[in-house]
Amino acid sequence: MRKLAFLAPLATVLAVVATPALADPASINVTLGPDLQDKVEDLGQRDVNEQADRLAEVVRRALSRSGGLDGARIDLVLTDLKPNRPTFQQLADRPGLDGHRSISIGGATIEGSITTADGQVLPVRYDWYSNNLADVRGYGVWQDADRAYQRLATRLAEGRYVSR
Questions:
Q1: Nearest C-alpha neighbor of 88 from the set 119, 124, 52, 47
Q2: 3-state DSSP call for residue 92?
Q3: Domain boundaries, given as residue ranges, for the chain
Q4: Closest Cα to residue 164, out of 113, 109, 116, 106?
Q5: Taking Cα atoms as reference points, which of 74, 81, 71, 72 lies closest to residue 29?
Q6: CA distance 163 to 155
Q7: pLDDT (0 to 100) of residue 1
Q8: How much is the pLDDT for 19?
Q9: Quick one: pLDDT at residue 2?
Q10: Is 37 helix (H, G, I), strand (E, B) or coil?
Q11: Regions in the chain scoring below 50 on pLDDT
Q12: Integer Cα distance of 32 and 76 in angstroms
């Protein structure tokens, strides 16, 4: 029994030492474009900041799963953002809006660049919007914007950086 008590910590240390070093994950920075900054007062600062954070998180998760773009710096600019339902700020500014029945075509436009670990700079551009109100699915305020983030993240993980 004493031999087992000695071998268990030793095996743990050896397993950690033998694990290959992981590459540095990609650094992701999201900023707001000038056109979107003009819309912040209408959409609400909190909602827009949460969407910028959400974009960074979705891209970070997709790249960590795929292992793509290790050591790269990804600078994304959220240039346009449209909600599917009124934001808290819009509901406060326009009391006649119905938070459940008021729907609109939503989505997002993202631009930016990727600086790979070897110094190569690659452009990034992606946008996605619902085509019509019949395409609006789900009940989230930012349903289509989130769909745009997911699709961009999948493309980045697959090595496709520019679309449309």
A1: 47
A2: helix
A3: 22-158
A4: 109
A5: 74
A6: 9
A7: 52
A8: 41
A9: 57
A10: helix
A11: 16-22
A12: 9
The answer to whether 123 and 161 have CB atoms below 8 angstroms apart is: yes
The mean pLDDT value of the chain amounts to: 84
| 44-74 tens-digit pLDDT | 999 999 999 999 999 999 998 888 788 889 9
Q: How many angstroms separate the CA atoms of 68 and 80, rounded?
A: 26
pLDDT, tens digit, for every residue of 119-129? 899 999 999 99
Cβ 30 vs Cβ 122: under 8 Å:
no
- Distance, in Å, from the CA atom of 71 to the CA atom of 137, rounded to the nearest integer, reads 36
Interatomic CA distance for residues 90 and 164, integer angstroms: 31
Alpha carbon 106 to its chain's center: 16
Give the distance between the most distant pair of CA atoms in the chain: 75
pLDDT at 18: 45
pLDDT score, position 160? 80
Candidates 57, 33, 43; CA nearest to 111 is: 33
Q: Are 86 and 42 in contact (CB under 8 A)?
A: no
Please tell me the pTM assigned to this model. 0.80
Residue type, 140: G
How many Å is the Cα radius of gyration of the chain? 21
Chain centroid to CA 13: how far? 36
Helix-strand-coil split of the chain, %, nearest 5: 45, 20, 35
